[in-house]
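Tutorial, part two.
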Amino acid sequence: MWLSVKRCTLALTLFACTAAAQQQQTLNSGVYTDEQAKRGQQTYKDRCATCHGEKLGGVAGPPLTGQDFVAGWNRQPLSELFNKIRNTMPQDAPGTLTGSQTADIVAYILQAGAFPAGRTELRANDDALKQIAWPAANAAQARPASAASQAPSFPPAGNLAQVMRGILFPSSNIIFTVQTQDPGEKKKPSDGATANGGFNWMVWGGNLYSGWELVDYAAVALAESAPLMLTPGRRCENGKPVPVNDSEWLKFTAELAEAGRAAYKASQSRNQEAVSDVSNQVADACLNCHQAYRDKPRAGVNPIDPASKANRCVK
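Running the prediction step on this input gives:
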């Protein structure tokens, strides 16, 4: 009996150690092989070099080596880089690389970045890739010095309603449209008339961008424009100042920015269901703020102001 318990304890210890080792794996652990990187170099040359350069230094696309590249990815597991390439590259034929080809390309990128090779090939397995992190030394590499203190400030050009209707409303609607229409669906020939609803190619990009790219741009627009709600001096449609120092207003702004980032991550998966799911987060972020600062039905409301515009921006 004692021997069985001892064996069980030893087995559990070994399992725990193995799991810990997997969780602590970094790119310095040798996560690819030289042979795999060699294959990846050829695939890269055929499918990626036109945009990213023969030596990964960037041309039309960004560089895939160097400090700026590392700084853009070192806060995320290797799975994020893999999925970015697998789902959205090459730009003229996204989603056409196989999992194995993508793993080979990532191996070549790592080799070019001077990360050591090992004995085992990098696998096209999302769970395994999530366990591979960038080395702490690389994560701590100095980024370019911030020039925030020297950045000019810009006064608001419009009121809050104009920012909402010009940026946040149409961007949110593009994301909501994914619930019912697949951005990857092939466009139908047009007779030149304006399409009804959905991804209107004449309005949104004039055939320049794919449906998924439009969803990317909309999500980024939400994340990047949410801070415009905090611009000092901005007024609401009714002339009242935007409550930029209100704790709830700050909270709702942060929620909207986070919803935009979540929508962008979901869009990068090129999965309609993933974006449909995250659209609820976008809707909730909007609703939370609207209920507190916009939608205020009150007894005796002025009949010429059924939308209660006079009470907006006031808790």
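The domain at 156-188+196-311 is CATH 1.20.120 (Four Helix Bundle (Hemerythrin (Met), subunit A)). In part three we will examine how such features are distributed along the chain.
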